[in-house]
Amino acid sequence: MTEQTTTRAHGVSPRLVILGLLLVFCSLWLRGRAADRAADSGKKIDVSDEFYQMAPVLCEVYMSIRDKYVEPVEPKVLIEGAIRGMFAELDPHSQWMPVEDYQQLEKETEGEFSGIGIHIILDKNRVLTVLAPIPGTPAAKAGLLPWDRIVEIEGESTKNITLMEAVKKLTGPTGTKVKIAVYREGASDYLHFTIERAQIKIDSVYSTEIKENAIGYVRLAKFSKETSDDLRKVLEQFNRDGIKGIILDVRFNTGGLLKEAIDVTDLFLTKGKAIVSTRGRAGIEATHYSENDPVVDQPLVVLVNRGSASASEIFAGAVKDHHRGYLIAPEGTRTFGKGSVQTIEELVHSLERDEDGNPRQSAVRITTAKFYTPNGTRIEEVEGDPKQPGGIAPDLEVTVPKGYERELFSNLLGEVDLEEPETKPAQPPADVETPRPEDEKTTGGATDEFYLKKPEKPEEKFVDVQLEEAKKYLRLLIMEHERKSR
């Protein structure tokens, strides 16, 4: 029941005077802040701006809730709620980062965090989704798979959760455990997992040589601080070994540092080629170009899938637009379509203070621009425009069996440097055979399915049909390259 009360006063009450003064203060403060920013930018402030006319409403609502709500509410809670409400109107990548979230982000940037080892996103419906578990990590060993929807963390619903809130819940001290529930397509009920956290360090470059075909294979797991330097060393070794063609695998590579995406692409393109441009409100803000001669000129095939995102798409888009190589993907798929720039701005003011009264810093992360490939293709989807569906379209599509991508992720080349916690994960029963991959490229994390029961018949060796097709196509490219070189 809602009770509506209208109060009419025959005089001016002290409370109304206080409210009026507060509204005036809010208005003057907001205009003062705007004037300061305008002075810094050399622009004039428009005091008729709609925001400055409506901002006092926010102050009035705050006063009303503070004084009349049935139970006392902390001012900090109301202000944080208002801030989160503003970000709820933006894209999933923009978010408010209170003190703890901002500190967590700084730790991740430094590579000093403990967790379960998954890349997560909020999909278009803001559902928390596993984009890819990292092979060899606790998440992979527990049986989490790409495209699992995380519906609960520690018994709490993930509805309306932000990425930073999810990261905060999933990370924690090494050896501690976290309980999650996921929805998996085709499952009759939620799947429940209890996963022990570990300290994880991920190498980003893995390589091998297929001697009989003189093909070099490289998998980029992510675009981290050392990726371009490590890849350069691999490519230089390929040159010394007489490698004639290269397969570069960015499947389930969820991205990383923009600088590394540019530097990796620079290794393959001739000097002066556009790699990526960013466009914000003012149009084209910056275009990045290759600055060096290529390290290799051999024919190139790039393996992508719908788990290739962000920095992976910058690389793939430049390779495709400049006809430097060919993209191969499963039939009917494009890359993920995460092509936006987020700017992190530390706030001047704070809602919290430490024991000495000093402000504890919070921040905002705001999408400020979108990525475009050299040919002007926007990587991120334009809603309502079927001509701009987002992602990078492949040059060639491969028909793959049902469930291929989920099995693929645990068979990709690359081990994770995993520092085990003091409490070791439970070992499988002695009477259960743990299958071991036969192929040298198959070194991913096992799933719980391996430990449930003995298979009634021998497990069939996983065939990476996308990789096999890439080998066939690359052999043709090598022949053509050699013919032109004569």
Structure overview:
α9 links the parallel β15 and β16. Helices cover 31% and strands 21% of the residues. Among the domains are: 60 residues, no CATH class; 107 residues, PDZ domain (Pdz3 Domain); 158 residues, 2-enoyl-CoA Hydratase, Chain A, domain 1 (Alpha-Beta Complex), CATH 3.90.226. It is of the alpha+beta class and 486 residues long. α4 crosses α6 and α7 packs parallel to α8.
User: In the CATH hierarchy, what is the superfamily of the domain at 205-275 and 291-339 and 386-403 and 466-485?
Assistant: 2-enoyl-CoA Hydratase, Chain A, domain 1
General shape: globular
The whole-number mean of residue pLDDT values reads 80
Largest sheet properties? 6 strands, mixed
Low-confidence stretches: 2-21, 415-455
Distance between the first and last residues' Cα: 87 Å
Strand order of the largest sheet: 10-11-12-15-16-19
Number of strands: 20
Looking at the structure, the CATH topology of the domain at 205-275 and 291-339 and 386-403 and 466-485 is 2-enoyl-CoA Hydratase, Chain A, domain 1
Radius of gyration of CA atoms, rounded to a whole number: 27 Å
Helix content: 25-40%
